Amino acid sequence: MFKLIIFDLDGTLVYSYTGDFEPGVRYWFSHCHRREKLAICTNQGGIGLRHWREVVRAQGGDIGDPNSTRWTQQNMEERINAIAAQLNATPYVSYAYQSKKGHWSPTPDSDQDDPRWSQSWRKPQPGMLLQAMTDANVTPDQTLIVGNSDDDRNAAVAAGCHYSDHDEFFGPYRPHIVITYNPDRCWSWLDLTDGLNREATMRRYEAMIQRAAQIYGHTVEVKTKQSRTSENIRIIRSESPEHKARIIEMVHGHIADCWINREWLEFDTPDQHLDALIASDEIQQIVIAPVVLRNIYGNDVTERCAAKFAEAEAHKRKFKIVLG
User: Fold this and answer.
1) Global confidence as pTM
2) Quick check: 60 pLDDT over 50?
3) Among the CATH numbers 3.40.190.10, 3.30.910.10, 3.40.640.10, 3.40.630.30, which is that of 175-265?
């Protein structure tokens, strides 16, 4: 039993770009958090000198004023406290700033002695973790770090703490999606192409909808059952009725894509699919979304799409490939 759990923020508790909670986070905080003390320690690497200046100026501050740094500190504290409030957590707010070029952002002279602005405070250095343990009055052996990067893991090792990857920690608490479908109904609608093998086609269909539903980190189970409808979607461990509705809508949307974009019935590999599209002189513009092809074939085809784009450009084709 750990006495302190320290969470990374972006990519661990929330999505880096949207700010939405990662799957399983709300459920764990609502149903599984007991008496452990909780802390949030984040580098906030995306906030560098340029962003600091923009924040200061937007708030009416003076970039040369030693107190201007307080604007950025207040902004970050408000963000982390808002997230913690939604999770019923009490955070210890720790952060450091780094510019996009990898240089340490300068700060007013009055803050040079503040450890939060030093390199030892930034992961993979253990400064933030050590301070959090001191404030919580716990030892490294009583502390668990939950993160999503090598910097998080290395900081935990440097501090002598236990470490868990966020997928491992939150995985058991993520929504579990059970998709039940009627293979007879599916096959009667799909069997429009000569030479299709029913068993192989149904296995590919199952794999496609499973990969599509796993995009946001959900665990997915696909079953077959005789029923009046083609698919039935059941959610276990949903975090709220609204969250459940969003998942069901998302899964239904991806299943609809399987019916609408029927090229997957004709090709065995993404290369065959891409080559056939490029070889078609009738198509003036081809839109290829790598995420859709990944769902179909189970491979990351972003680089292949880019290569096909370069090939088409080199041959001065009249159409273009747009990477989605």
Assistant:
1) 0.58
2) yes
3) 3.30.910.10
